[in-house]
Write a structure and sequence with these properties.
By secondary structure, this protein is an alpha/beta fold. Helices cover 32% and strands 18% of the residues.
Length: 374
């Protein structure tokens, strides 16, 4: 079975398959071809891939010869004419955020597997690209904030006096939030954390953070651990609680997302106005509307002396390790398809397939995406 890896758009530095998984893919039964130059921005040369058994070809040849096409982002629309019913496309196509674009891709009649919709269940953990890439986002968000913040993070006792530690507020204690806690604590900051899910309190405290509780949240047990929309009464009390901590914070990192919906606004303009000059906000939800009312996607702005960084694609800024993690997720995903006879089988009754097989034969089959389109 021939597997082709296509290059990502110019804004993306990662690559979906790295040299360290090529041998394992070949042992599964794949013939692997890389688009020429696809790994350059992630610091992987064509020679690196050839040395481990992959072929390097032009883009047109990849589309023509491959049965399975792997990427991070969806192929550009100019490539749609090269895709047909023989193809299986694997990537993170964001059908809940980009339903119309997903529908257009589905019309090529290829089978679309979107790895960002893999359910968060135990046996799918090794395939969870959202978690692996969120790890990168949480880590890099703190480093980015530190580089824009005009003071030290840790407490320092010097001949010139004692420097107090930075106060960091993290909104959302998912994978990105937990990694942000760990990174901020390593740098010596005092960390406060807010999340609607009380079950993450112990995890936050084990990393050395203080957990901010607002009682009465709707449980997230039916959403695979993702946050859910809350009542208006809860939102009011939530806003009041967050405002008190934002005012005291030097750094705010927001990570809150609700799948298929606009990101909840947790940091209002009034809250930003209450912050000290020189403070920094990193909004990881900016591509979905933003947790901060003032943030702009893919922009770093200075608002009344506060630096606000809107960036939902921080994994692209750490492309080597982010690509390796993504590639390992992809390999584990493919491993799931092969039976004992090394045959590639799509079991549509399996929960993982049910969630991530977005489209086939020209039609959307993913229920949540269909609901958004209708």
């Amino acid at each position: 079975m021939k597997l082709g890896v296509i290059a990502e758009p110019e804004f993306e530095n990662r690559i979906s398959i790295t040299p360290d998984v090529i041998d394992a893919l070949i042992k599964l039964g794949f013939e692997v071809s890389m688009e020429r130059g696809a790994g350059t921005r992630a610091s992987f040369s064509d020679k690196d891939f050839e040395q481990v058994g992959a072929k390097v070809n032009g883009r047109d040849q990849i589309f023509q010869e491959s049965q399975v096409l792997v990427s991070i982002h969806a192929p550009d629309t100019t490539s749609f004419s090269k895709i047909n019913a023989k193809h299986i496309l694997v990537g993170t196509f964001q059908p809940l955020n980009r339903p119309k674009e997903t529908l257009a891709l589905a019309e090529t009649k290829a089978k679309l597997f979107s790895m960002d919709t893999i359910p968060r269940i135990t046996r799918a953990q090794s395939m969870d690209v959202l978690s692996s890439q969120a790890t990168v986002s949480g880590y890099k968000a703190v480093l980015l904030a530190a580089s824009h913040y005009g003071r030290f993070f840790p407490m320092l006792t010097t001949a010139a006096g004692t420097i107090t530690p930075a106060r960091v507020l993290i909104l959302g204690a998912g994978v990105a939030g937990l990694q942000a806690i760990a990174t901020a604590r390593r740098l010596g900051a005092v960390v406060d954390v807010f999340d609607t899910r009380p079950e993450v309190k112990e995890q936050c405290m084990s990393l050395g953070a203080k957990f901010v509780e607002v009682e009465g949240a709707v449980a997230a047990t039916k959403t695979g651990g993702y946050a859910v929309d809350q009542s208006e009464d809860y939102k009011t009390r939530q806003k009041e609680a967050i405002a008190k901590f934002v005012e005291k914070a030097d750094i705010v990192i927001s990570t809150a997302l609700i799948p298929g919906k606009k990101a909840p606004v947790l940091i209002t303009k009034d809250m930003v106005d209450s912050m000290r000059l020189g403070s920094v906000i990193v909004d990881l939800a900016s591509a979905s509307g933003g947790n901060c009312e003032v943030s702009k996607n893919n922009e770093t702005i200075l608002y009344n002396g506060i630096t606000i960084i809107g960036n939902s694609n921080l994994p692209s800024t750490q492309p080597i390790d982010a690509s390796r993690m993504y590639a390992k997720n992809v390999f584990n995903f493919f491993f799931f398809f092969f039976n004992k006879e090394k045959q590639f089988v799509i079991n549509r009754e399996d929960e993982i397939i049910e969630n991530c097989l977005i489209a086939e034969d020209g039609s959307i089959r993913h229920k949540a995406t269909l609901a958004l389109l209708s």
